Amino acid sequence: MHRGNSGQIRVLEALLATAIIFSALLLTHPIYVALAVGGDSEALYSAGMNALMVMNREGQLGQLIAQNNWTGLSKQLSTLLPIGVSYNLTVYDEAMQVVNHSLIANGDAAGKNVVAVQYVLVERTDCRFYVVRLQVGYMK
Amino acid sequence: MRSFRRNCSGQVLVLAALAIALIISSTMVYVFQMAEAQSLGHPSSSDDYVRTVKLSTRNLVIGSLADISYGGNTTTLGTNLERWCSFVENQYYLGKSHVSFALCERSPYSSGLRLFWGTAGFGVTSAKVDFSMGLTDETTEMSAFYSVNVTTSIYVSGVHQEYSPNWYAVNVTIHVNNEWEPALAKNFTVYHESETGWQNSGLLSGYYSEDFGNGTYRASFVCQNFVNDVSVRLYDWREIFVQANATCA
To answer: Chain A residue closest to B64 (CA)?
Structure first.
């Protein structure tokens, strides 16, 4: 009887060993996800920051804001941000009052991983200061 | 001994699996902690803020200089920079920020400005300011020192030739520079001095201007009673005004 069951016990032990290793892998999975999301956040942040910097290099960003040209601003952002990245931009003046009363956005961010980029800028013509808050995320 | 090995081999397998699971878990936790430690020093904090402020400061100096070159008050530069420093200090949300500036007083600058619109073919409109910036947050403490120099200059030279009594063919060559590198002009006007005073050469019927695309422009015209002097008033693409007078050869 004892000898006859030993094979089955070996199989059960092997299954138990496999289960232990798989459970360890499953438990550490959230860490994989966190690391992947962290990498995505950095890429999103860089994309957003670079887009704003390119627009501000020759003072164009300030010019578009001063002219209330939200359509132009939106077009520029859509061109500069990678495909599949959605954004939502809010412009504040020196008193931190919202300047854009129309939405400057494209699509809908997935909500899982949205990164905010804050940018301070100067408009050259009247030397007015603005804070731009750009939220970028991957499209749903 | 042999039977003991046989009986315990399954338990050894389970123990080995536990050990492997432990190694996997601890490795992952270690990798995660290392990645987290690295992300604390991510440029999304202070480095990017300094880059942003530098770029915007440059735009502010350009805007102020353009205003001053149009005839605005020379104190505009200092006033705008004081406002800017206060604004920047308040917007750093990761910790404390301190920004200060010093207008260049080294010759030929005065109060950070150099406006020299000469009569020997050279004109310059320039601003130079030194900045220091300190940022302190939970993890980093950094300081940055940088200088912003915005300069628009032109070199004007001209030649004239009398081709009939009192009628002169004049060629004026203009070189435009931004920060001493060739740059494009947004627009410019050439004036010539005649016996009745300064005249806008662009209004003459035979006026012709040529853009070489490399910051060099040539204006040609034919005028009457020319008294050798020409003047060029120019705006660059940053709307900074500069002027220079020259005597034609």
So the answer is: A127
- Domain edges within chain B: 11-40, 43-249
SS3 B245: strand
pLDDT tens column, B195-239: 888 889 888 888 999 999 999 999 998 888 888 889 999 999 999
Q: Which of B12, B28, B70 to mutate to test the interface with A (most CBs of A within 10 A)?
A: B28
CA distance B86 to B81: 9
C-alpha neighbours within 13 Å on the C-beta side of residue A112? 11
Residue range B158-176, pLDDT digits in tens: 998 888 888 888 899 999 9
- The answer to whether residue B102 neighbours chain A at the CB level (below 8 Å) is no
B76-91 helix and B46-69 helix, angle to the nearest 10 degrees:
160
The DSSP letter of residue A82 is P
Placement of tokens 């009398």 in the chain: B162
A120–B13 C-beta distance less than 8 A: no
- List the beta strands (DSSP E) in chain B: 95-103, 113-117, 122-137, 141-164, 167-178, 181-182, 185-194, 197-200, 208-211, 216-224, 226-236, 241-247
Q: To which H or E segment does residue A25 belong?
A: helix A2-56
- A54 → chain B, closest CA residue: B55
